[in-house]
Each structure stands twice: as C-alpha cells, then as structure tokens.
Amino acid sequence: MRVGLFIPCYVNQFYPNAAIATLKLLKQLGVDVVYPLNQTCCGQPMANSGFEHLTKGCDELFVANFAEFDYIVSPSGSCVLHIKDHLHDDQHPEKATHIRHHVYELVEFLTDVLKVETLNATFPFKVGLHQSCHGQRGLHLSQMSELIAKPFSKPMQLLNLVKGIEMVQLTRPDECCGFGGTFCVAEEAVSSKMGKDRVEDHLVNGAEYITAADMSCLMHMEGILKRKNSKVKVLHIAEILTAAHD
Amino acid sequence: MISQKHPELAEIFNKDEARVNWHDDTLWWIRAKRDKAAHGISEWELLRETASQLKNNVLSNLHEYLIQFEANAKANGIHVHWAADAKEHNQIVLSLLQKKGITQMVKSKSMLTEECHLNDYLEKNGIDVIDSDLGERIVQLAKEPPSHIVLPCIHKKKEEIGQIFHEHLGTAAGVSDPQVLTETARIHLRETFLTRRSALTGVNFAVAETGEFVVCTNEGNADMGAHLAEIHIASMGIEKLIPKKKHLSVFLRLLTRSATGQPITTYSSHFKKPRPGQEMHLVLVDNGRSIQLGRESFRNSLKCIRCGACMNTCPVYRRSGGHSYHNAIAGPIGAILAPNLDMKEYADLPFASTLCGSCTHVCPVKIDIHDQLYKWRQVIVKEGYVPASKTMAMKIMDFTLSSPTRFKLAGKVGRWTLKNAGFTLNNKFNPWFKNREMPEAPKESFTEWYQRNHKDNL
Fold it and tell me: What is the pTM of this model?
C-alpha cells in the first residue's frame, strides 16, 4: 500500500508541525508514505467563493501529484471533502475518479483502513474536541446532533487511545467555529462572533487544549484565543496522537 | 441607492454583543426543543425520508396534482384563482374585497403574503389589514417585517413588546409580563375577529385528492378569522400540494416538532367547503416557483414546509438576525429561495453561510440546503453579481495555486511578511485582524522541512 500525503496549502505554510505529526504518525503505523513535492492546494478557497471554474489548474496539478497512489491521506477533513466532491480532470477522468474514491482524512484512514486499536501516545491534559463541520457532516467522521441516529466519533475513538488525556464535554458539541474560508473576512462580524462563542464553550468547560481534525478551524480559534491572551492552545489531532510525555 | 447587504446588516446587529448572545441562546433553545421532540420518535429519519420522497413526487407531477386539486376544490364549492406572480395575487385579493365593498381584513400567518408584500399593497388601496398571529401583529405594530418565518418577532425582547403594546394597545408603561400582554392582544383581536367581514389565511398543505386545504396555527387565529368572516381567502404557493389525505400525517408529525419542538400544532384545521352563505376563495400563486422548478440544482428547495428549523440551527442566522437577510424569508432556506426571485438583489445571501451543513440535516424534508448555497455561489459568480475586486483576488489565487513554483514563492513571501512586516497585516484594513490575531509564521514550510529531512526519499 503506497500512500500519498496531501498537506493543505495553509498547513504547509503556517502549520508545518501538524503536517510533520501526520507524517510521523503514518510512519509509526508502518505506512509507506510519500509526500509529492509539487502539490499546492485543493482549490477549495476559490470553489467555495463561487469560482469553481477557476480550479482547473489546481485539479490538474492534484491529479498529476496523486493519481499514482493507492490512498491519498490528508490531515484536513475540509480539503478531503472538497476533493471527494469536486475533483475533475477532463483529460484524465479515470485518474480523478480513482483519487476521489481513495482520498481519506487522516482520522478515518486510521480508524477505517488501518483499523488502529492502540497508539503509543501520552498527553496528560484536558482537551476539548472541536468537531469540524466538513469532517463531521461531510465525511461523517462523527455522528451529527441533527440526526436521530446512533452516536459515534472517530476522532474521539482515537483520542481515547491516548494515555493520560482527559476529554472535556462541550455544551454545544458540534457547532461551527465560523471560519468558513473567505467567509471569515467577507462576513467578519458573524465569523468572529462564532469563533468567540466556540472558544468560550471550550474555556468554560475547562479545556487546556483545543484539538480538531481540521487546522483551519483551529487557526480561527487560535486567532481568537491569542487576542484574548488565553493560555489555552490549539493542536491538530495528529500532534496529540503522536505526543510523548514522560 | 445600493441596499445594505448581509455582511453590513449583520455587523450592525453584532454591535450589541449581549443582544446577539440573547438571540443566539433563544433560538438554540428552540433547536434543543426540536432535538428532544425528534428523539421522542424512533422512526424520525424514516419520516424525513418519506416526507422527502412524497414532496419529490409532488414536484415531479405538479401539473397533474394542481389540476386534480383545482377540480376537486371547485367541486367542493371553493373559487380557485391562479396568480402568475405577486402582483397578480395582490390584485386578485383586492378585487375580491372591492367587489364586496370591504375595507377591512383580518389575516392569519402567511409567508406567501409577506413574499408578495400584500399588506403594503392593500393599505395603499385603502384596505386596513390586521395580522391576527400574535407575533405578526407585534411586528406589524412595530412597522417591521417578520424576522423569522415561524417566530416573526423573535428578535424582540418582552420589554420591547411591552413598550409597543403601551404605545398602540394602551397597556400601562413598563408592563412586560407575557400573560398580561397576551391577554391584551386577545381582547384587541377578539374585537377584530368579530367585526371583520373578510379573512385571509395561508395554506400549509393542500390535498389534491380531496380539494381541501389545511392551515396550522397555535393560536386558532386562522379559524377565528375564517369562521366569522363572510369571505375567506386562502393564499397558497403552488408547491404546497400533497397527493392524498393519508400523507398529511407524515408532514404534521414533522412540521411542529421541527419548528418549535411541539408534537403537533394546536390547531390543524381542514377547510374543504364554504359554510352556507360564506364565500371561500383560494389563490394559487406561482411567483417564480415554476422557474425554480426548472432549475435542476435548486428544484428541491420547493419541498420546504416552512418549519424554520434551518434558521434555528443556523449559527449565522442566530448571530445575524432575520432582518440581515433583507428578504421575507430569512436564514438558509431564504438564501436559496431568494436568488431565484432576484439574483442581483440577493446575490449576497448564498455567501452568508460557512457551509457547515447543519441546515441540510435538520431539514424535515431533506432539502440539500448547504449544497444549494454552494451551487448558487457558482451561478451568481458566473452571472457577474460579485464585486470585481473579488474576481481579481480569485484570479490571483488561481494563478498562484496552479503553479508549485509560484505557490512556494508566495508562501515564502507570506511567512516573511508575517514575521518581519506584521504591521502590513495587523491593521484595520485586514478584517481578520479586527477580532483575531494572525497565525505565527514558522521558520520553514512543511515542504522545506521535508526536503531537509527526507533527502533519500526525494
């Protein structure tokens, strides 16, 4: 099994530690993982802004970078969902289809493909899990509160394998953080307010760290936390799943 | 004059943060009530699926159901009128009143008449209209449009309602006890019901098989109006049909549980024929619905039963208020219906969402609301209804992200700027910075780190 590591553009540039942890985690689990150097972006920022027709270049590049792999794995539910729903390549439709069917968000790759049951990680802190919307409602990483259906949570399943971790309960377990791509600047007032409210839920429930399977939500909440001079930090779930503490 | 758009109106709403918190909590409380009610029904998801399929059937065969319904309604003694648009609807209602020399009308809740701006039209033509739904009456007295399709005055606190009642209905100043206010409204409306010769109601469901229509209210105000008036006019969008009477239970079980968390509306009244001496009229209104039916991507928005669950669950609606949507129907459903009516005026609405998807999954008839928001964005951009500056920014983004070399360079520049020239970003011209700090720039990108650490792999 050869896995292509897809690192979202902003994670690559601003949150390399989340990407390093993802790579480390996959290697720890014995995965033959390669990082194609010419990757850029999935095209979602443009598509979600209504400019899907401008994503041809990104799509072609994505296909060129990832078509050869058995699986494509990425530490971002949102970018994975975009690829799954919208990747097209008129020149190589079969390659695009292969990618759409074999792209996985990191957590679901661990729980559903690798079927991970143990992890060698220790993280003795109180952690709040933010359920990123695209991962949750789009990829169904966890059950959403809107549906009358059996609860489950793949991120929680993995976090529960971490030694010493204490998960905090949130008052609203799956409300959006308000990032929303260009929404965060186009609708600044509502976006910021959503971010503040989401952060507050973690704070009042005693979280020392906020984690998620999507760095974009965490980037948003980090911006709010720092403005508040809060000591609470954000960490991508891969960073907790690879954390070592004496 | 360029009308204010959702971001500006939402920003104004957000100036009073305590009020935003109150609005958000109030609507979230209703969402929680909905959850509790839905959890009480083990076959909830099956009900949603059934309702969705029934509505799909209706939309696929609308022409036949409409003709069947018209024939049956006529046979029952109901006068059926067809209105192509809002203007024609309003004219029909006015002419019915004028024919009888009526100048006063009582009206129960009807979002369609809000969509058609019927009240304004009738008032301009010398007809006095009183809304009999309590929430509608409150916003009518306040000279405001409803901010929510089920809870028209949810944006008002009880103290503010007390002030409105003090000014218009003569309650003592400072009275805000809901019991007292409701009692006052009751007395005021009782007089209205007794003296109005005409009553207009909305329609929640119309049954093709029997030619009857069903009106759901919690206050019994539709019944009070219709039963006392000599002419009952019902306005209905053409999509409100259901095939058979037996299908009604599916929708009645879903409607109020989704709307307010109640098991059923207090009154689900069936109107089948006029009582002796009464005239019953029904106006079937298209007003853009046929066009929407022809838009494949947006067709199933016509499944909507107007429960408002998508508004209560929407984190953006809760924090921007119904009026920020500047449309009769606010929230996520309003944002996918409005561009069909006027794409330019409502070009902002599909962008007033994070595409979190909560609306789609709370919807009792399974409208793929957030997917349609995404699709409207594509249409609106192609039709040229976004600012040129945004188009330019997106073209630059495409130019940068289509090339690994340019992407790497842009990343370097971005990180360098964050580290060394933060002042160019940390200022009032950057909307992100207004309430949030910028991310800290790492010393290298992941690609650079990988190249340094995996030389053998390259």
Answer: 0.96
